Amino acid sequence: MRVLVIYASTHGETQEIADAIAGELRAQGLEADAVGAEAVHELDCDAVILGSAVRSGRWRREAQPVLHDFGDALGAMPFWVFSCGPLAEPAAGETLGDRWVESQHTIAEAVRLDARDHAVFAGSTAEHAEQIRTWAQGIAHDLEAIATP
User: How many Cβ atoms from other residues are within 10 Å of residue 23's Cβ?
Assistant: First the structure.
């Protein structure tokens, strides 16, 4: 099974996360490549993970067209989304998702296309290495279940 981890990065953190996700998927026995959103002209894969840096409450403009241009293909395959950006730590009793200001339109489009999950990583890859690894392992498990009748 081939997985594309498509990313739009501002300062490199989102690319590092995409590379870490692809690396973990490969460690789990999948064929996985991380590629910048601007380089995607077709979806020659079985599953997609789409991620973007978030600045001023919005995904990078390079990532948004992937949802729109490839919506039919994404809706017909397993896909996940992740967002990356600097956020303050959540207050007691609050989750990071409660404070996320990502454009509701973008996430609504991902939900409409049946995205399986939306992970939020605030900060560097090093700060969230275990969370990234665990999320990627969950995706690999889901894909294994899909591939095994």
Answer: 16
